[in-house]
Design brief:
The chain has 11 helices and 10 strands. The protein is globular, with a radius of gyration of 18 Å. Helix 4 links the parallel strand 1 and strand 2. It is an alpha/beta fold and 277 residues long.
Length: 277
């Protein structure tokens, strides 16, 4: 793939969710508009950096789990700026011949796409510049059709993404993406919710919207709607940190605490993995 850094309009004057996420993860690929938005968001949700890390950690756990179940194909939409471990690194660590297609609409992700394409000799990684709101375009992209075999299970990964599309149209979008995937495929998702700490998350939504970024948090019913035709894997739809937490947290007197003994902040989102019947 050609180096796109010299020819891509990075839209530095407008905040973008992928660059804000990069900032919260400690990355350097962000601009003043992103950092200004991030500061407002961090005022609303002081634990937001931990939330970003929790989303990343869930991706790692979920991909490893699905790889152990035999999944060898992944369609990751809303990829974000490369931050190790990337999804293909996790998948190909367990299954060297895993095939991964990344999709993102941020020009800076395109500029870094080469870093996303370095995988194992037996595996395949590809990148598509597109948007979640154009599911048909994603599915018809050459990199998707040539890399993924839709006769075999595919894991569709939508990590911290669907809350950036408001209204009911998001359900049609996800249904469109799932429709051509065969039985045994999976939907992997995290989603912002007001169920655990309404004031904190409502403040987060306001901060994003004030920065020009559409966002809608959804309650348990709203998140479960994505999985209405799928078989949920245990433990179901739970706080992101509680999806197979690998013993990193413990309860003391009924309160979940972090490894340093501090109480865990209220969860900001749900995580779930569902299997297509």
């Amino acid at each position: 793939m050609a180096d796109h850094k010299g020819s891509t309009d990075l839209r530095q004057d407008r905040a973008h969710s992928a660059r804000i996420y990069d900032y919260f993860l400690g990355g350097k690929d962000n601009y003043p508009a992103d950092r200004e938005a991030a500061a407002k968001i961090e005022q609303a949700i002081p634990s937001v950096r931990g939330v970003a890390r929790d989303n990343r950690a869930f991706m790692v756990r979920a991909v490893r789990h699905l790889s152990e179940l035999g999944v060898r194909q992944f369609l990751d939409i809303g990829t974000g700026i490369p931050t190790e471990p990337n999804l293909h690194q996790v998948a190909q660590e367990t299954t060297p011949d895993a095939r991964v297609v990344y999709v993102d609409n941020d020009p800076i992700v395109l500029a870094h796409a080469r870093a996303l394409l370095v995988g194992t000799p037996d595996g395949v990684t590809q990148y598509v510049q597109s948007d979640l709101t154009a599911p048909d375009r994603i599915l018809s992209a050459a990199a998707v059709r040539e890399t993924l075999d839709f006769d075999r299970p595919v894991a569709l990964s939508l990590i911290a993404l669907c809350h950036f599309v408001s209204g009911d149209r998001i359900y049609d979008i996800v249904d469109t993406l799932l429709a051509p995937l065969p039985s045994g495929s999976y939907l992997v998702m995290t989603h912002l919710t007001t169920d655990f700490d309404p004031a904190m998350v409502e403040g987060t939504v306001r901060a994003y919207r004030q920065s020009g970024i559409e966002m809608e948090a959804r309650d348990y019913a709203g998140v479960s709607r994505f999985f209405r035709d799928l078989e949920l894997l245990e433990p179901g739809i739970v706080a992101i940190e509680d999806w197979h937490p690998e013993g990193k947290q413990q309860a003391v007197d009924g309160v979940t605490v972090l490894p340093n003994g501090a109480p865990r902040p209220p969860a900001a989102g749900y995580a779930a993995v569902g299997r297509k019947k």
